[in-house]
Amino acid sequence: MNTRAPTRPTELHSRRIRLTSGLSAAAEARSQVQAAIRAWDVPVDPSVAILLTSELVTNAIRHEAGETITLAITCSCGQLRVDVHDTSCFFPVLGDASVDEETGRGLTLVDTLAAKWGCYRTPAGKAVYFTLTFQPVRRGRRTGSSAGSRAGTVSRDPSAVDRPHGARPRLPRRSPRCDGAQG
């Protein structure tokens, strides 16, 4: 018998945090996202949410001279969404970093691991966001989380090779689709 509990939470949760641009902003953002996931009992992989949050916050700090950024965490409609607001008017560009480069892979991680991502203009500049879809809950355990590893398993789907668990295959893109949904 395969019984599944309904995916939770069903109500809207939201949190906005203003962060001072600087070395501690990414760490504070990671801490805030992890705290929200725990407090709201969100069935997503926290390590993925924390990694992607860190990438967006680091990009905002690296490419923006503003004093603060705003982190918005929302949980509703079967997904966790994280938005990073800054005062830059320039949208991020999904690029191809060479093997020798030490930077330039952050948005590739976001593009690979997020269910959706994108950016949009705000009155103060722009926001870049990602979403993670809730993982099904079985008998009190989340599937695909760090509690269960896929190491050593065999997939019948040849397109699943070299992709993180749950990630969809992606076609190469020349630039991100901003001012709209990404995914």
CATH architecture: 2-Layer Sandwich
- The top-level CATH class is Alpha Beta
Per DSSP, the total helix count is 3
User: Which sequence of strands runs across the widest sheet?
Assistant: 1-2-3-5-4
- The number of domains: 1
- Helical/strand content category: alpha+beta
- N-to-C SSE series? EHHEEHEEEE
Per CATH, the superfamily is Histidine kinase-like ATPase, C-terminal domain
Biggest sheet details: 5 strands, antiparallel
Rounded to an integer in angstroms, the radius of gyration calculated over CA atoms is 17 Å
Number of strands: 7
CATH topology value:
Heat Shock Protein 90
Quote the average pLDDT: 76
- Residues in helices, as a percent range: 10-25%
Terminus-to-terminus distance: 34 Å
Unreliable residue runs:
142-176
**Outline, from the CA principal axes?**
globular
- Beta-strand share of residues: 15-25%
